[in-house]
Amino acid sequence: MVHFLHPGHTPRNIVPPDAQKDALGCCVVQEEASPYTLVNICLNVLIANLEKLCSERPDGTLCLPEHWSFPQEVADRFLRVMTWQGKLTDRTASIFRGNQMKLKLVNIQKAKISTAAFIKAFCHHKLIELNATAVHADLPVPDIISGLCSNSWIQQNLRCLLLDSTSIPQNSRLLFFSQLTGLRILSVFNVCFHTEDLANVSQLPRLESLDISNTLVTDISALLTCRDRLKSLTMHYLKCLSMTKPQILAVIRGLTCLLHLDISDHRQLKSDLAFHLLQQKDILPNVVSLDISGGSCITDEAVELFIQQRPAMQFVGLLATDAGTSDFFTTKQGLRVAGGASMSQISEALSRYRNRSCFMKEALCRLFTETFSMEVTMPAILKLVAVGMRNHPLDLPVQFTASACALNLTRQGLAKGMPVRLLSEVTCLLFKALKNFPHYQQLQKNCLLSLTNSRILVDVPFDRFDAAKFVMRWLCKHENPKMQTMAVSVTSILALQLSPEQMAQLEELFMAVKELLAIVKQKTTKNLDDVTLLFTLKALWNLTDGSPAACKHFIENQGLEIFIQVLETFSESAIQSKVLGLLNNIAEIRELSSKLVTEDALKHINSLLCSREMEVSYFAAGIIAHLTSDRQLWISRDFQRRALLQDLHAAIQNWPSSSCKMTALVTYRSLKTFFPLLGNFSQPEVQLWALWAVCHVCSKNPSKYCKMLVEEEGLQLLCDIQEHSEATPQAQQIAASILNDFRMHFMNYQRPTLCQMPF
After folding, report:
1. Which end of the chain is more exposed for a tag (fewer CB within 10 A), N or C?
2. Which superfamily, per CATH, for 463-655?
């Protein structure tokens, strides 16, 4: 049976021995690296299309098709996934009315639903567990209890009720749990739960596990009422407790059936209750789990003696104490320790305290120190960091420390061994933290640093549009040069991953282009051909690729003038090829190409046409091919156009085979920019360059570009060249070579209408 996991609930929460822990870590890796289960895929599709698949009732709520029916296990999971995705509302919860869904284990944590929707959707089912942790204030605790008690079956059989961080109206005083006679597990952590409520709860005939952490209880004496049945008591941070320590210890001494006791506290409060408890010999004879994290004056010797007197103990919580460093804690077989003295203790703390921000922050701080020079991939630990980030989205210390730990765990080559799904989750959580804390610069730096990881930036799914906005805003902040270089390099890669439509929607694009041009101008003025200049030129090149908006911003911010200055200042081919690559992007846009038809620009472009560096000559030729193909640009200077075409033809004749290797990798989002040139039979030089370019990319990356030729319907143009009487023999030869590449890589592709190609 599936149960809710909740810190402090024993015996369920007693963690297995060390050998099982290693197996658990392997399970995390396998789960994250494995494909989603078919059930989860189906449920995700169903939830995404719920509005389409369901009909609407007169009250505006959704109703499942009449013939649909879900088994209990699937119905429980369906609800859990809906809740996880934030899709559970008054409108959608109505699908759980009636008997089409049979629920037992209901999880509605953090859901925003009303009392009426809760009662109609869930209180007629035969529930044995309800997790209503942190539900919206529209569904207060008294209404939850009242709804559950409206079903006599639930009264007698509900076993587990989790109400952590739920609200109670100010006018409510006493919570009536007494009708839930079957209740075994109750958690009211961080609830306005009073001493009178504790007295009421203590009367429950089957109560075995109780969590009253961070409540308003002042006296725990009522617990003696259930001394013969209470096995687990969690009372972390009982800030209002007014009893003396001897009185508290007397109550604990009376709870002889306790297997688990949690009296952990915030370290700042310097509570010494745990210190005094450890001195008692006649207390907790059957305990197997004791949590005293955050307690003051705790020593290794005292804890060791206490455990030796109770050899059945399996867990002790020592985080934020002075204990835990003794060899005893690593050598005692079967003992788990949540602490900060070793990676094993930190891992246990992260797992056990995932819902307690004070201890999560402490564990993350210890983890950061432990992983600062990490050389081993630890996906199970990264998963626990992600859980902490997800559970405490508005806690800045947790988010900041977690982001630093995530960096340590994924730095350099460590990310290569991490499952993509896990890296995606962590990256998305980092961006969520950025939105919650937009003005905290160190958190932003950590996020930017994570994006410089090539594994994350290239392979991991995340919202690249949001990432581009963040990085471009950072770029314009004029931060220190090192961070600026990182922002530029990330911008360069993200630019290629956005569609032209997304580029057009980027409000930050104008400022980013302006800032990048300012960097280029500064470097050029100082004659600095460093890595930042190369990254910046590459970023501008990629930003303008297929983006008329970016090209327009480039021209409007004197980009052409700055780039001509770059060509006049630097002679390195790595710089020249990037400059010419961007100018190619400008030349492809008819509305802007005229800006390149100036004496100054054409002089530099034509001079580089004869460069010994293949990629420089190639990009210079591309600019000339695009510009000369538009005769309207040359109405009064046709002689110059024809001279450029002659130079273009001569340059291409001097090039090696189109399958040659270039220093700069040539890539294209689309081949459509070549299509007008391929059909230009009146200017064979232009057509020849386009054919050479298409042949080059198809020979280098046939799986991408041969497929692109099909999808963009470019094959017919190549067939036309083969058959056209005005095509030159050289053009026909290159076209045939491209089609042959196509045949080799798509042997089973049948397109008999295209040149009757034999396959």
Report:
1. N
2. Leucine-rich Repeat Variant (1.25.10.10)
